[in-house]
UniProtKB/TrEMBL annotation, chains A, B:
Reaction(s) catalysed (UniProt annotation): (2R)-O-phospho-3-sulfolactate + H2O = (2R)-3-sulfolactate + phosphate
Necessary cofactors: Mg(2+)
The name this protein goes by in its record: Probable 2-phosphosulfolactate phosphatase
Domain of life: Bacteria
GO molecular function annotation: 2-phosphosulfolactate phosphatase activity; magnesium ion binding; sulfopyruvate decarboxylase activity
One of the Pfam families matching this protein, by short name: 2-ph_phosp
SUPFAM superfamilies, A to Z: ComB-like
Protein EC: 3.1.3.71
Gene this chain is encoded by: comB
InterPro entries: ComB-like, ComB-like_sf
Keywords attached to this entry: Hydrolase, Magnesium
Keyword Hydrolase in record: yes
Statement: the UniProt record of this protein carries the keyword DNA repair: no
Sequence similarity: Belongs to the ComB family.
Amino acid sequence: MKQLDVCLTPDLLHLHSLDNSIVVVADIFRATSCMVTGLAYGIESITPVATIEECKALQLKGYLAAAERNALKVEGFDLDNSPFSYMSESLIGSQVAMTTTNGTLSISKAKAGAVKVMVGAFLNLGALANQLRAEQYDILVLCAGWKGRPNLEDTLFAGALAEALKDEFMLMEDSVLMAQRLYNQGKNNLPAFVANSSHVRRLQRLGIQKDITYSLQTDLYDVVPVLRGSKLVAHH
Amino acid sequence: MKQLDVCLTPDLLHLHSLDNSIVVVADIFRATSCMVTGLAYGIESITPVATIEECKALQLKGYLAAAERNALKVEGFDLDNSPFSYMSESLIGSQVAMTTTNGTLSISKAKAGAVKVMVGAFLNLGALANQLRAEQYDILVLCAGWKGRPNLEDTLFAGALAEALKDEFMLMEDSVLMAQRLYNQGKNNLPAFVANSSHVRRLQRLGIQKDITYSLQTDLYDVVPVLRGSKLVAHH
């Protein structure tokens, strides 16, 4: 039977063998919620890059540049890290280069060893689960966390995916059990359950409660972003 | 106000500044439960060491040697890693050198930067909480985990300590919130809550269910092991 495991932060990725695994990267507030939204609204590809400089270099080649550091937009870039910025008709068919504090770094790390890299969010939870059921590989959910530390919202997403796939995958390790139990504890009111988390407090100070509420909605889109080469593209 | 935080595994300790913190190391199954039991029963000191070789070297100097690797006793050593082995009258006044897969390594790591290192278990939870209330420092609970990965039982202990100290300490970070919520979810029946964890399954195969049940009991002892130089000694 296939196994589903969770890595609570990219700083623990060295403990996992990825040889036979699909890695699902989750950065719920807000990188992977933006990616799912953008691809659902018709962006052609999103290229995750690790640094501001790489992002600027792609901007010079005609990409739209999206950058966030410490939850703030970066000067001179086309897009910020709010999912609502990714709903514009003007973005249809565009190529986006994106760098964020945690999410894009996790994707880079995952790319090094995994069979395949996908992007997850509550927004595409059901579609992602269906896609993963059809694959023959183990799954590692890589929570992007915050600067190396685990965070609540990404852990909850991992738990939600584990709960959705528990009949088809073995849940063996304690990290996935903890994520699953936290999700079951909070699932009836996720916004209330994350209200005291460190990241939510950080974001609320920036006045972006609506991004939080939006990103905790389940199954708005059926798109699954998959990494092909250096680009995330939509798998419907 | 003082802060209490949790580090879910020693592999994340680099993310924490220990300058102003007391580190409480927890390795519930079974190193820190053994330490608390042994000091409560009259062992004079326990010297945690990282390697089997260091432990043997101290054995030659007259220490009793305790070693565990992968949950098994090591050939030629005086004590194993079952808390019941630490209840013998013959141990009163003795010096013990101990090495275990996870717990003693965590103590070594903590020693490098912390103001003070204490040892926690469910067995001494209340005494430990009282001691920490009287201190002026922040607290970091360092969960020993299993070979770098977070585990359920140590996380639950961290949550129990956070719950006990929530009125006197700020609980700011997501790791401590997750631990606290898991503890509150499981506290009415901890043995059932940990029954599916990876470590419990590992230990059950070795036939040591009684160690598990014992180690999940709260407030059997009022001893708080504190590191003085290289030795853990009892603080009553």
